[in-house]
Records
---
Amino acid sequence: MVVALAHPWAGGRRSAFRIAAPRPVVESLRELSASRRAVISVFVMTATIMQVLDTTVANVSLPYMQGTLSTTQDQINWVLTSYIIASAIMTSPVGWMSARFGRKRLYIICTAGFTVASMLCGVSQNIEQMVLFRLLQGAFGAALVPLAQAVMLDAYPTAQRAAAMAIWGMGIMLGPIMGPVLGGYPTENYSWRWVFYVNVPFGVLTALGLSVFMPESRIRRDIPFAWFGFLSLSLGVGALQMMLDRGQDLGWFDSTEIWAEAILSVVGFYFFVADSVTAERPFIEMRLFRDRNFSLALALMFLNGLVLMSTMALLTPMLQNLLGYPVLASGYLLGARGIGTFVAMSIVGRLLGTRDARPFMLFGLALATLAQWVMVGWNDDVSSGAIAFNGALQGFGLGFVFTPLNTVAFSTLPKELRGEATGLWTLVRNIGASIGISILIARLVSRIAYFHSQIVEHVTPFNDALRLPNAGLLADHSPRALAILDGIVTQQAAVLSYSNDFLLMTIISLVAFPVVMMMRHPKAAAAAPPGAANGEETEAAPAE
């Protein structure tokens, strides 16, 4: 389009300026060049890793935050739970917001908001400010992971989708695993505030990169927002998280608060399900659950989030409190799990292609379950080499599960449901992680007290197993000797408690095997894709 403009400095002459017509909306990322898709993938993965890292990166810094912010142990836990609650609640409307406002615009706003909230967390002066800014950080960061998954699915053709999901999965799996390492270093050498400041340069670079290279998706203004479904789901998830977070401190259902939160959670989920079934335009499309593979994959993702995050939550205090490893040393040992995951995803992304994903998942589950079973036999004499090898083995197994699971889950879903599906995918993983951590940590504390009382009954001068090595402690009734003896008993009770929790995790891992067996190979499922009778577009993996 050419427009003639008169300029005073042009001597009254008209000067023709060529104004480019508005760029059309690119509805498919596959229309872009391969190099531009690769650049977009880099920025998308940067945002993903930032968001996932912040789920665990603050854990090792909590004691330092507690001292700086002058707060109690119960209050400082809100630094973690506020982030999880906000992230879980705001994950659910990601699909609607992406369709209503455009994926690019939403991505940039969320990345910028997450970056600003991270900076505000670093400058917090009291616990109230910290909780508020962590809520903002979780709310803005909730969309980053599901949007990244949707972008990676749309940007690459079916034949390359497994490799794309392997790249995306690396960020998801490595984030929680490397969080303790990356959080421990700045905390030990600088200040806990740098745990949040480090997000700022990467967030700014990501927002600028997305604004330049990423095209906007098609905007649909005709989609109404299901407020009732959103609010009822938010009530259910928020009350559930509050109950799980405060249950151990308040004695669970001996507390009126826990009863109130449990009732509110049940009411919220009830109204959410009722609205989803009866409403003309529900908050989450029920068509998602008609896809057999996606429904089963959600169950498996729930178990996967439960096992991975719960194991990490157990190993961190076990390494530091029971085995006496420093913060950085324990972080390095946990990092072996990330190395195993990285290697496995690099391999499975190349092998999968259009092959049946179920054998890969069964192989990975077998390795991860074996590693979990080995942990049942650990005691306070376990070597660092055994810990690192077992972590790498479990990470390798989980890597063989995660990428095929993502491929199978979305292979037969209609394209228009992919945005809602990725949001629900992340929500289920977060709920599984929060439930697993809360239950296992609460169980660990209660079992330590139980085993302590059981062992104490056998600590007598007449016990032949204690007579020789501990004769001096048993004969000496001074406070120092009794304190040492009580420490030994507590240590052994903790060993038994960790072993019991690892056994429970092994049993939970076994539940995943029949779930995988009930899935269908995408090639077979494509013969009768969900929604085909209604003329819906379905993109399935091509047959070999």
---
Amino acid sequence: MQWGRCIVWVLSGWLGMTAGQCAELKLTLNEFLARVLTNNENIQMKMLEVQISRKQYEAQKGLFEPAWVTTATHEDRRNALTEEQKRNLFFATLFNERNNRYDSSVEMITPSGAKVQLGYRLNELRNNLNQANFPDGEYLSTLSLAITQPLLKDFGYAATLANLRAAAINSDITFQEYRKALIEIVARAEAAYWDVYLAQQQYAFSTDSVAVAQTLLADNQAKLAVGKGSELDVLQAEAGLAQRQALANEARQKLYEAANRTMIFCSSSVLGPHDRLVAVDEPPVGPMTSDTLYFRTLADQLNPDALALKHQLALDGVRINFAKNQRLPQLDLKASYGSSDINPNYQGIWRNIEAHDYPAWMLGLELRIPLGGNIKARKELDAARLRRQNTLLAMQSLRVQLDNLIDAAHKTADSYYDNIQRYAKVVDFNQNLLKSQLDRLEVGKTDSRTVLETEQDLFEARLGLVQSKVRFKRAVLDLEQSVGMVLQARNLELSQSDLAHRTRALMRSGRVTPQAFAEFLEQVQREFELRRQSAPPIPPATLPPRQP
């Protein structure tokens, strides 16, 4: 009860604020994490980065989008007459022409790499050669289908879809980066929550020690006043009280610092009005029921760095295959088929096209070979292979790191769990001993120094017990973070499609407004609360193996 009143003092009076200006904010761990997920800007930025990469992937699908291309040109030329033109233009010395050209086509690329163009061309020809017979000019129209199919370089699905596949894999990598950031923030936020709990307990123990020293000093002063005590006992009690008051001040400062650190994760500033966090939950304690090998196997399935490197290895494979294709010579098969008509009457230009009276077709090959041995493609292939080797080395290095981190965290948690059992016995012993020493002091069978030493032992044992609990929880957090199971253990794991569904509505309007983003964050918090209520968090040390 005493330490509860002290917490109120720390969170309001010590900062010079009234209770109305700075109220207690009692939160469970789940409630605190819900605020972190809603307010932390780093999480919000990572969520948007995932959506950005998703949009970039979807943008690559536009490669196969048909395009309508249309042009209109006017040309006015004067040329010297050729011999053929001289025979047709008896008195002219120049060939004058004024032509209008209109081209319209639909173009697209197929997954095989072929470029397809379906086009229509209309030429309005006016010159001094045809003006005698056709004063309004002539109309030349052509309808054609042209295909250019690469046979070596840029041939096939692997080459054509390389950028699309790379964008999809980059989207997966970005999602794992989001998971990593979320895991780190949740782990650090929870560790900060337990730091507040530890600081609360330490301050509570300090105030209890001060209360014992004050009681002891008052008793010794009363005994001295009636001639039953000594000045030495009073001095010892005063020194003990001063020492404990100094420790209480230090504990109060630690509590202030710990409470301020938690605000960072909720994006709150100490400069504005805010409530002070009071940690309601105690760190859960339990034996580690799974061995290191189980957690190491689970890390291959959940660790974001491991999953990102797997995606990176797949991306390297796409780049290598594309680079190999680009090393080939450029050999294209070109084919076209069309029908044309020329008519002085615009209304009749489709007559011969529909009848196919004047068909035309073309079939050919075009070969392009770099004379320097295709330096660019060869060097890009070398770079792609080196990049894959670098990824393999990174995967090997990560495996070693995870082996050591998981083993160290597992053993640390086991060690602190053992300390918890031992400190609990020490606390129980010192509590009984302090009670006995106080009874002995009443009848004059011991002195103040012995009582203060016993109380100091009890303080250290109680603090050691709480510190061991918090350090055990920190070791479990380190283990969960190394494995990548922080989100799964707290029922916060999201699939990439779930995250895309969350942000799709936000991006639907094409512009993110403050109001839309605030509504989006409220939806995130509601969904988190539903997840928490429907499936309470699984104790991390007893998480069952994943089903294949």
